[in-house]
């Protein structure tokens, strides 16, 4: 917690303590002479002092730092917008809990299982599992393309594209050599399959762009005042046709080229087994 936030909280707790102490003093004055009531007020004062000391230390039950900044609830449509929902939230201690918070306090769940899942989803292990499931699923669903001649990519990262399978293998081989991988180990480190790519040529809808501009910057009927839409479109189509050199290639996860049939089939079988195991 930042120093200014801590100072503000200390001040707030101190003010609360002083107000409650003043209120108890007033009650004591009004009930002066009633011994049992006076003892009860002393006990309340002591409890208040203990509570304030624990709050200032930022501690709750069992040394857990509990600062409830916000709890997100799923409210039914029948109640939404009909006023605040009354709640009681406290640490369960040794009692049976009816809610579970994630370990970082970012969310609260009715069941412990879901709180544990939410915690797990923030771990590096979960991210690695998700990545492995995604890669395995793509491999299983992908269509093998025969006699493919075009751009390919290993995983879609910028440095993993090449104009052909041969060019890509050469690029990977060079990288492995630079990393001092022994020559006899390089073949097994080369990809057994790669993804095909789709070609994305130059296309820009000039009319749609102008209409969007008019919607954002002019009155609703401004497009009706534009002259010669047909002339603009004719010019634009002719000009766009000259931009054939503007072309990009994007990975196509639905199609693959097999380079090493034996290793591909092994990886395919392993992917199927992994997904079956994680169902």
Question: How would you summarize this macromolecular structure in one to three sentences?
Answer:
The chain has 279 residues and is of the alpha+beta class. Strand 4 and strand 5 form a beta hairpin.
Topology:
Layout: H1 3-30, H2 35-56, E1 100-101, E2 108-109, H3 112-120, H4 124-141, E3 143-144, E4 152-153, E5 161-162, H5 165-178, H6 186-189, E6 193-201, H7 206-217, H8 229-241, E7 247-258, H9 261-277
Parallel strand pairs: 3-7
Antiparallel strand pairs: 1-2, 4-5, 4-6, 6-7
Helix pairs in contact: 1-2, 4-9
Tell me about this structure.
The chain has 279 residues and is α+β, with helices and mostly antiparallel strands. It folds into three domains: 56 residues; 57 residues, no CATH class; 112 residues, no CATH class. 49% of the residues lie in helices and 11% in strands. The protein has nine helices and seven strands; from the N terminus they run ααββααβββααβααβα. The strands form two sheets. Strands 3-7-6-4-5 form a five-stranded mixed sheet. Strands 1-2 form a two-stranded antiparallel ribbon. The two termini are 42 Å apart.
């Amino acid at each position: 917690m930042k120093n200014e936030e801590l100072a503000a909280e200390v001040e707030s707790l101190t003010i609360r303590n002083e107000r409650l102490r003043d209120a108890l003093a007033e009650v004591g004055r009004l009930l002066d002479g009633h011994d049992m009531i006076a003892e009860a007020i002393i006990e309340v004062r002591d409890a208040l002092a203990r509570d304030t000391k624990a709050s200032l230390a930022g501690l709750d039950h069992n040394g857990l730092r509990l600062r409830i900044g916000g709890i997100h609830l799923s409210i039914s449509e029948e109640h939404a917008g009909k006023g605040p929902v009354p709640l009681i939230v406290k640490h369960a201690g040794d009692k049976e809990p009816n809610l579970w918070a994630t370990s970082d306090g970012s969310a609260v769940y009715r069941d412990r299982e879901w709180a544990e899942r939410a915690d797990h989803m923030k771990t590096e292990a979960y991210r690695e599992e998700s990545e492995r499931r995604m890669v395995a699923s793509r491999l299983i669903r992908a269509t093998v393309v025969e006699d493919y001649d075009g751009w390919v990519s290993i995983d879609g990262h910028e440095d993993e594209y090449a104009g052909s399978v041969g060019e890509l293998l050469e690029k990977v081989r060079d990288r492995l050599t630079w990393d001092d991988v022994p020559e006899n180990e390089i073949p097994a480190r080369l990809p057994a399959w790669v993804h095909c790519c789709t070609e994305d040529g130059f296309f820009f809808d000039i009319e749609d762009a102008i209409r969007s501009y008019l919607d954002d910057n002019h009155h609703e009927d401004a497009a009706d005042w534009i002259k010669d839409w047909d002339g603009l479109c004719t010019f634009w189509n002719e000009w766009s046709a000259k931009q054939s050199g503007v072309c990009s290639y994007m990975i196509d996860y639905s199609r693959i080229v097999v380079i090493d049939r034996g290793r591909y089939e092994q990886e395919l079988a392993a992917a199927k087994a992994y997904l079956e195991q994680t169902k």
